[in-house]
Write a structure and sequence with these properties.
Pfam families: PNP_UDP_1 (PF01048). Its EC number is 3.2.2.9. One of its GO terms (molecular function) is adenosylhomocysteine nucleosidase activity. InterPro entries: MTA_SAH_Nsdase, Nucleoside_phosphorylase_d, Nucleoside_phosphorylase_sf. Helix 1 runs parallel beside helix 6 and helix 3 packs across helix 6. The protein has one domain: Nucleoside phosphorylase domain (Rossmann fold). It is of the alpha/beta class. The chain has 6 helices and 10 strands, in the order E-H-E-E-E-H-E-E-E-H-E-H-E-H-E-H. The longest helix has 26 residues. The termini are close together. The structure holds adenine (ADE). Adenine binds next to strand 5, strand 9, strand 10 and helix 6.
Length: 230
């Protein structure tokens, strides 16, 4: 089994690239695809770049050119809700693109027009593996729930209040929903695992810079335990 691992930013794949063995690199669409072994599993690790378009291109290349059987997206997210703090982990069970808006036609916000699904569901087995991995992490809480994605860095209390009420989301980021859509269209099982870097509220960009390292460390640790258990 070959597992595609996507992180949006250098920081999010750095630990993975420091640990990958027999690394063969290839550049496509400006993205470096690292084929090798990571913690005993055959993987392709890639930094997609930020945002939904980058992430979608990257996912389709992993599926078409590297024939990956599973895709795991790791990295950081803004936490939504009072009880979620930097370093906590979200295992997504479904994803929605919160910036899709054809409401003028009567569609719900987030609905991709003329697609038969509203949300994109993560693979049950991968969710379970991630949740089992979370159990070993005593210092942080973990949540299973919906992550919403859009081409926006959220730093606004009114916006997160809306994301919570409209989508019942526990986290927001900028790639997961498009990775999920590409995986859905290609019938490729996937999961998104994100650790909290900020509370997506006013001043989030300042917390974000500060807490990226702990977020990356925690989501990478979950991935490591998962790969070992697979
Ligand atoms: N990734 C991490 N924090 C985020 C936020 N507040 N908005 C969007 N993406 C994020």
């Amino acid at each position: 089994m070959v597992i595609g691992i996507i992180g949006a930013m250098d920081e999010e794949v750095e630990i993975l690239l420091n640990n990958i063995e027999k690394n063969k690199k290839q550049v496509k669409a400006g993205m470096q695809f690292n084929v090798g072994e990571l913690w005993g599993k055959e993987v392709v690790v890639v930094r997609s770049g930020i945002g939904k378009v980058n992430a979608a291109i990257c996912t389709q290349i992993l599926i078409d050119d590297y024939k990956v059987d599973r895709i795991i997206n790791v990295g950081v997210a803004g936490g939504i809700g009072k009880n979620i703090y930097p370093g906590d982990v979200i295992v997504a069970d479904s994803l929605v693109q919160h910036d899709v808006d054809t409401s003028v036609f009567g569609d719900r916000f987030g609905q991709i027009p003329r697609l038969e699904t509203f949300d994109f569901k993560c693979d049950e087995e991968l969710i379970k593996l991630a949740m089992d991995a979370c159990k070993a992490f005593k210092n942080y809480n973990s949540f299973v729930g919906r992550i919403v994605s859009g081409d926006q860095f959220i730093a606004d209390i009114d916006k997160i209040t809306w994301l919570k009420s409209e989508f019942d989301a526990v986290g927001c980021e900028m790639e997961g929903g498009s990775i999920a859509q590409v995986c859905y269209l290609n019938k490729t099982p996937f999961v998104v695992i994100r650790s909290i870097s900020d509370n997506a509220s006013n001043g989030a960009h300042i917390d974000y810079e500060k807490f990226i390292p702990i977020g990356v460390k925690n989501s990478t640790n979950i991935l490591k335990s998962m790969l070992k258990a697979m």
